[in-house]
Design goal:
With 236 residues, the chain is an alpha/beta fold. Helix content is 36%, strand content 23%.
């Protein structure tokens, strides 16, 4: 099937609560729909997200060729995982941790995009297990409470804090050195006290972390720690 010259495939998922769009390659659009979804509505959904689809196609086209990783370094928690791929396993299954820091991953027809989505799922679970308690420890240490915490796969932010004092963290923080991760935690906790980036905010942050200016400059370049496969399979 095609929409404005773009090939797309549609897959139904009973757990989906909305239409999910993915751009796995420079000439393909993958669509996941809930059960009993009226597929005649797809053109209007594509139209509504047309600019995002165009930007994602351009972004993916500009990416260097990505191969399936052989190891994953999670600097934040000092873990290195070696990957073993299982061929011809039939139905895809979640990446599974086995002894000796080995991660078994199903290779589905050799598709790097499918592998990347699988690894992102593992990264999500790993990040939630480690980043959530870590942030809570820093919250207690600084005496700055927050309401809720979520872990997601943001494209442009390492973290955010809402007016309700809910903090969201990027799962890719696991690839960063610990001092940068802690800096992100402090940055978002300071937003609990001051939601903007006014001089008052920066003063509060510097009181907590005297080296905050240098760390802030480093966090702006921290994308270099994130492997290319993480950006594959982004959904809308």
């Amino acid at each position: 099937m095609r929409w404005k010259g773009i090939e797309y495939s549609v897959r139904e998922n009973h757990r989906a609560r909305r239409v999910i769009l993915r751009v796995p390659s420079a000439n393909r659009l993958d669509v996941v729909v809930p059960r009993r979804f009226n597929r005649r509505r797809l053109p209007e959904i594509f139209q509504a997200h047309g600019e995002w689809i165009k930007q994602e196609l351009q972004r993916v086209q500009a990416l260097p060729a990505v191969t399936a990783p052989r190891q994953i370094d999670l600097q934040a928690i000092d873990q290195r995982w070696r990957l073993e791929y299982l061929d011809d396993v039939g139905v895809p299954s979640p990446a599974e941790e086995v002894s000796g820091r080995v991660l078994e991953v199903a290779r589905v027809s050799g598709e790097v995009e499918a592998i990347a989505r699988n690894l992102n799922g593992w990264l999500q679970r790993k990040a939630h297990a480690h980043l959530v308690p870590w942030l809570r420890e820093v919250s207690v240490e600084t005496g700055i409470p927050f309401q809720k915490i979520s872990v997601r796969g943001q494209s442009a932010r390492w973290g955010s804090c809402s007016k309700q004092h809910n903090i969201s963290l990027n799962r890719s923080l696991l690839f960063l050195p610990p001092p940068l991760v802690r800096h992100v935690f402090l940055h978002e906790l300071c937003h609990v006290k001051r939601l903007d980036h006014s001089p008052v905010f920066w003063r509060i942050l510097q009181e907590m972390e005297p080296n905050s200016k240098a760390l802030e400059a480093e966090i702006k370049k921290a994308d270099k720690y994130v492997p290319p496969w993480v950006s594959l399979g982004k959904s809308r």
